[in-house]
Amino acid sequence: MRRQPILAVLAVSCGLSFPGAASAQSEEQDKAGVRAVLSAAVDDFIVPEYRALQEQARSLQEAVQSLCEDPGTAKLDQARQSFAEAVTVWSRVETVRFGPILRQNAAERIYFFPDRRGIGLRQVQGVLAEEDATATDAESLAGKSVALQGLGTLEFLLFGTGAEVLAEEEGDFRCRFAEAVAERIEVTAAEVTDEWTEPDGIAARFVDPASSYADFQTQEDSLRALLGVFTNGLEMIADTRIAPFLGEDVNSVRPKAAAWWRAGLTGPAILANLEGLSDLFQRSGMANLLPEENGNLPVEIAFEFDNAERALQKVETPLSEAVETAEGRSPLAYLLIVTRSLRSLFAERFSGAIGLVAGFSSLDGD
């Protein structure tokens, strides 16, 4: 454990002045420690999770294709199960909002949410009403709105109004549209994964930053991006995944404002969000960055992640249904409190302990 904020030590190499700056040997040790955390974050979480997303997206595309080729109830159930697995895999890595996932609207192409004005739904319904053949071809679909290309559209096609027709020959157009969407999801996931696995790509720049890079010039830049996964990710979960459908009380709940409500996957997705963050924290070894006087902070963080999981386990029905009763809403209100508490642990205490001021919110558009 380190005896002073690690960025105070690293600042020596940047020409900054801090009281009690460490020796050159200590500085090199701290640089190596930070590099180990950054490398583990990439090798043990980010890359494996994106690879898992790409593989599951491929499985989803194959399941939808099989449904279109041989429609039936069993094939529809298989496609829906594959969709649920894709949502879980995506949710685990959804909070990583730096790098290729931000280029060319990749995150929105995978999942366009929140859609407060219902843009995506209107576009999907328009394609179905007009039977727009260009939406059944993945290449032409790529030129359309990002709201039509991702998991949100596929959720409506597989679970929304009229989805039962997919089990019949009469559902051919809807199914071919779904197949094109699934293919677009696979392509986007593959593009993001490929960028993360390029030998001299973002992973190399993130782990070994240099002044010649536009994105990661110092280890502080990389640490800020990594910390942002937690601060911005937990804010996303609280403010866009829980609060909108929870409301202020049982009289102001909005069940259909919940992500994945049609598929009944609101709870599993939030759980996967939180489990992904917990796994990233553990696998990256971020606790090793803390000074010894903050040695109990990882225990507090783990405790709050466990609290969040227990709160979700108390809800036995889909969250969008449970929220409509006082009994069902109670653990969700607690979940919101815990999620915001977790964010404070990272944004205030963890960042302060390592000498880093958390960056702006990725949700505020600044």
From TrEMBL:
Q: Which UniProt keywords apply?
A: Signal
Q: Which InterPro entries match?
A: Imelysin-like, Imelysin-like_IPPA, Imelysin_sf
Major place of residence:
other
Name one matching Pfam family: Peptidase_M75
Q: Which residues cross the membrane?
A: none
**Entry GO terms, CC:** cell envelope
> What span is annotated as the signal peptide, if there is one?
1-24
Compartmental location: Cell envelope
* Keyword Cytoplasm included in the entry's annotation: no
Chain ranges of the Imelysin-like domain: 46-334
Q: What is this protein called?
A: Peptidase M75, Imelysin
